[in-house]
Amino acid sequence: MNRYDSYFTFEGNDLVCEGLKIDDLAREFGTPLYVYSERGFRERYRELDGALSDIEHTICYSVKTNYNMSLIRVMAEIGSGADVVSGGELYRSLKAGIAPDKIVFAGVGKTAEEIAFGIDSGILMFNCESFREIEEIDRISREKKKVTDIAVRVNPDVDADTHRYITTGKKENKFGIPIEGLTARLAVLKKLEGVRLRGLHAHIGSQITSVSPFLQTADKFVSLIGELHSEGFDSLDCINMGGGLGIVYNDERPFDVGAWAAGIIGRLKPLGLKLVVEPGRYISGNGGIFVVRVTYRKEGGSKTFIITDGGMNDLIRPSLYGSYHRVVNCRLREGSEKVDVVGPVCESGDFFAKDRDITPTKQGDCVAVMSAGAYCMSMASRYNSRRLPAEVLVGEDGRCRLIRRRDSFEDLLRNET
Ligand SMILES: Cc1ncc(COP(=O)(O)O)c(C=O)c1O
Fold it and tell me: Which of 206, 207, 255, 320 to mutate to test the pocket of ligand 1 (most atoms within 8 A of CB)?
């Protein structure tokens, strides 16, 4: 499979999804507009599910990457669980039909209210980030006369070799409990009657393109599990390897999921362990694009600017991380020109692409920011009192439906008193 934007391709000069011209969708639904491919989400899930078929596993789609209810519902339909990091994400996942016993709840700062919500909902387990948090879960569980399954998020001190803002498994990151001396420190859990240690969890970073950091983490887990089992932690039967699988935005060469799965299964299966994984970007990233319309062309002192009706408030990754997204004209023309593709927001950081060669663009053209299914709409804000964009979903049958209407002006004021 061509993993590069394969759900959005050119037919002749037109960018299409399931045969529908993106230009036509932009005319029908307006811009700025997110367009998602249902096939994209489903195929990526099935690919992972197949790769992991040799081990008992649960795939928990990481809702933070894209939390539109219709997309979570697609994931629920194909049997996915959910990785949530807030009461809001838990609420959405349950409403969208994700089975509670396939939901894992992560995050360094879960509040008592969120913990109670998770316990009452009967989630699979909490991924715990500190001993204080475990004590809090224990206290709330005992109040409710329940025993709650937890996994301890381990900080394995593994370098995921990715952007420093999205590396999470190094000593200096705020996530997880340090791996050194962990077995001895976990002894305290035996005294807690409200929690049961079911698993170990690690999420070492995002957009990881090499298998090696995952295997280093799995190796560390294997020796830790051995120690914990000999210390009498018999309920420990599950390893959560987190998410982090990289995708193609430009010229990355991500690992093959078959090799990733085989490496993990080879280490964990002999120990009789179940596997949980929490992929986000891998499922949603290439399954969406962001479509904007050119409002003006502007010749600056030294550059040509393509000013669009979408901005950093709608899609912040280039501004936040300097991330690369391919940008294409939805109707190709002959030739190419070097431009900056920018938004209307009052910040110099408001851009989608800088010094990029794209086919010549005229005022009124539609331009697509590719691979925009993950961490794009879910990070959108109303900065500059801009209305959040609409979202549409293209089904495998080639039909398109609105899954989020564009904000109205009234929506901007709705919660203000
Ligand atoms: C705990 C946890 N699991 C899973 C994910 C999903 O990561 P990715 O989108 O890289 O698969 C994240 C992302 O931040 C995370 O923090």
Answer: 206
Q: Is the CB of 206 under 6 A from ligand 1?
A: yes
Just list the catalytic residues.
346
Q: How confident is the model at residue 175 (pLDDT cuts 50, 70, 90)?
A: confident
Element (H, E) at 93: helix 87-95
Amino acid (one-letter) located at 267:
R
Judge residue 131's burial from the number of C-beta atoms within 10 Å of its C-beta, 0-12 exposed, 13-18 middle, 19 or more buried.
middle
Whether 236 and 221 share a structural domain: yes
274 falls within a domain: yes
Instruction: Look at residue 153 in the predicted model and tell me its pLDDT.
Output: 94
| Amino acid 5: pLDDT | 58
Tokens of 259: 């090799």
C-beta of 48 in contact with ligand 1 (< 6 A): no
The span from the CA of 231 to the CA of 301, in Å, is 69
* Ligand 1 center to 62 CA (angstroms): 6
Q: Using the 3D structure, point to which of 224, 246, 279 is the last residue of a domain.
A: 279
